[in-house]
Structure formats: C-alpha cells, structure tokens
Amino acid sequence: MASYGSPGIWGRLKNFDAYPKTMESFRIKTLHGAAVTIISSLFMLGLFLSEVSYFLTLDVRQELFVDTGRSRGERLRINIDMIFPKWPCAYLSIDAMDISGEQQFDLQHSIYKTRVDEDGNKIVKDDEGEKTEPGEGKLDLETLSNSTELQDNSEEDTKEETDPHRCLSCYGAETESIPCCNTCEQVREAYRRKGWAINDHDVIEQCANEGWKDHFDSQSKEGCIVQGFLEVSKVAGNFHFAPGHSYQQQSVHVHDLHLFGKNARFNVTHKVNKLSFGHEYPGMDNPLDGHMEVDGSAEQEGNSMYQYFVKIVPTHYWKSNGTVLKTNQYSVTKHKRSIKLSIAENGLPGVFFIYDINPMMIQLREGRKSFLHFLTGVCAIIGGIFTVAGMIDALIYQSNKALQKKIDLGKAT
Which residues form the Endoplasmic reticulum vesicle transporter N-terminal domain (predicted)? Predict the structure, then answer.
C-alpha cells in the first residue's frame, strides 16, 4: 500500500503528458504572435471550407472493361441538331446505313427540317402563304437547343384533296404497294424504290402541275435547320447529309443529282449545335457540340465533303440512388476534301458521320466520400497549420530575442 504523500498511479500518468502547461504569469504575448495567429486562422478557415465543399461534391469513379453484354438487335439513338445556313432543305437528303445491311433513306419521321432565309429567319407558313419570323427565327443556338416544338417547313403547301378514285401513272414504276401516283412526291418515291432516277421533272405531269421545279428552284438561296433523332442498329455504320434524292440501285447507295446539273455548287457550311449518342449524364462532354465549318470551295472549282470519323464508347452511368443510365461517349477525327461532280467516283459533297463501336465499355459510378475521410482531412488541416504556425512564431520570437540581446550588448550592426 502506497504511503501518504507518495505519487499514486494517477500521479505517475502525468509523466506521459506530451503537452506540459506553463503558468499564465510566465506566458509572453507578442504582436507578431497575434499576426501569425490571425493569418493561420484565415488559412485554416479557407482550407476547412474547401474540404467541406470537396466532401459535399459527388465523387465519380471510372472503370474500364470489355463490353460483353451487347445483345443482338440493340439500338443506338443519335440526337442531331445542326444548321446549314447556305443549303436549302429541299436539296438536302438525310440517310443512314450500317454494315448489317440496314438502310434508311431520306429520313423524315423523326428528323425535322426548318427552312431559313438568307438572314437566318425561319420561314413559316400561314393562310396568306410563306413569311419569315424576324427575331424568333434568328439562328439563336440556345433557342434551338431548348426548342420543344419542331416543324418540317420544307414540305410543299397542302394541296386540295384529289378524287379518291383518281389513279395517275407512276411512269413505269408501279408496284403492288404503289399502284398509283397522284402527286409528284409519290412518283419520286416509286422511282426511288425501283432504284431509278428522274432525269426531267417537267415531263412528269404531276410535277409539272404542282410547279415542283419552280418551287424547288425558289429555295436555292435558303438555309436549313435539321433537328431530331434517328435510331440505328448498334453496329458500325454512317449517316450523312447529302444533296439529291437517295435510293438503292443494284445494292449501291445512290443520290440523284440530275436535277442540279454537272456544274452544280453546294455550300456545305454547317454548324453542329448538338450531336450525341444516347442520353446525357451530368458533366458529359460531346466534342462536336458547337463545332462549325465554313465551306469556301463552293465558289471555286469543286464542292466539299466533310467526313467525321466517330469512335463511340458505350458508357454506363450509375447514379448515387442506384439507377443506371446507359449511354455513349465518343471521340472524333475530322477530314475534308474537294469533290468534282463530273467525276462519278470522286465522291459526293455533304457531311458524313462514319461511326464505329468500341469493344470496351466505361462505367461511371457516383459516390459520396466517407465522413471518416472528411474528418481525417479536417484534422490534418487544423493540426498542420497549427504546428507550422507555432514553428514560425517560435522562429520569429527567437530571432527577435537574439537581435535584442545583441542590441543590449552594443554589438548590433
């Protein structure tokens, strides 16, 4: 048993105190010490707020692995919002095809074309005919992006309904599905399905009665806004914007350019307001968004073919609530070359997107940082700044003390 006055077990524990205290009367407070305290406190507060912001920010982790889950028949959605300020809607054909043999000609069911005049105003139709919409029709990219009402203003004026028993000739292109052609567009569609070209629209009675050629020529100085989406098989393929009516002839994709003549010039100036493959996720970066190309070759000897070679990377984005968004990212390489229509094998003017599917998949997963990680960071900030500030204060104090001692001894210089 310990004798009276001898240190007990609690008394011995004092020997392990790493923070010995001094009496208040022995503590010295200095002006530089106050300055160091204020500055270090501000640093501490700033870093603390930064750590809080970092803790509250979602952490997105990225993983890369081989895509083995692709199923047969899976579809790829392509979202398009483009502007062709010098290319009329009537001249423009939008087609898609892939290596599986699937082809889509002159897409219209989910792609909408809006005519614009030379000043960028949308051309609308009412009971009085065609007119422009100044201001609202300007090529405002933000307005186009947020637009929810898409209209196809490139179609001809609505015609008076014809006699239901009327059956005009398709000029040799009749089939069981198209036995009659009462409009110019029906004749063109019948010829497209046959893989034939119409050399002269004036000899087609329906086209002549509708004034199709004059209406076509009247749009020569207009532009076109193309918006919408298309769905294709999830295999390598391409979709393109090119002049002329498209059709298939002996397993070859052909565009009918007879209407334009061999010396035609197409200004393929374009701006990609939006191009994405699938749904968007937070922070998604589409490299072609806002990209613009100005075609200067239309005034020279040839036309331009713009080719965008797109590498699509399947992406799964897992949200913090457990839901998954299946979409795609992409990278792109651009190429441009001049085209002469007089040389058939030289190619076709227009904008071509040639895409391929990467066999790798990226998985992005949202997550929150642990509170323990946050607490560790805060302690490191407080402890680190407190220690460094103490070292700086001690250094300044000792330096001043040594300097004062020299002054007192009369040795200061």
Answer: 13-104
φ/ψ region of 195 (left if φ > 0, alpha if ψ in -120 to 50, else beta) reads left
Q: Taking a C-beta distance cutoff of 8 angstroms, is the pair 177, 139 a contact? A: no
- Contacts of 100 by beta carbon, 8 Å cutoff, 6+ apart: 233, 235, 237
pLDDT of residue 220: 77
Q: Three-class SS of residue 102?
A: coil
* Per-residue pLDDT at 151 exceeds 50: no
Residues 118 and 43 occupy one common structural domain: no
- The pLDDT of 187-204, averaged and rounded, is 75
Q: What is the pLDDT of residues 296-311, one digit of tens each?
A: 765 565 588 999 999 9
The residue type of 278 is G
Looking at residue 264, its pLDDT comes to: 75
- Total domains present in the chain: 2
| DSSP sequence for 21-57 | ---GGG----HHHHHHHHHHHHHHHHHHHHHHHHHHS
Which carries the bigger pLDDT value, residue 129 or residue 314?
A: 314
For residues 149 and 281, membership in a common domain is answered with yes
Q: Which of 199, 161, 201, 196 is nearest to 185 (CA)?
A: 201
Instruction: Of 155-159, 190-194, 316-320, 399-403, give the range with the top mean pLDDT.
Output: 316-320
**CA atoms of 322 and 365, how far apart (whole Å):** 9
pTM, to two decimals? 0.67
Query: What number of H helices and E strands is found in the chain?
Result: 7, 17
How far apart are alpha carbons 322 and 333 in whole angstroms?
35
> What rounded mean pLDDT belongs to the chain?
78
Q: What is the pLDDT of residues 71-96, one digit of tens each?
A: 667 889 999 999 999 888 888 889 99
Q: Alpha-carbon distance 262 to 260, whole Å? A: 7
For the chain, percent helix, then strand, then coil, each to nearest 5?
30, 30, 40
Instruction: Answer yes or no: are the C-beta atoms of 185 and 192 closer than 8 Å.
Output: no
Q: Which residue type does 407 have? A: I
What CA–CA distance (Å, rounded) separates 291 from 289? 6
Three-state DSSP at 24 gives helix
In 3D space, the residue among 157, 161, 159, 181 whose CA is nearest the CA of residue 169 turns out to be 181
74 and 37 within one domain: no
Whether residue 111 sits in one domain with residue 36 = no
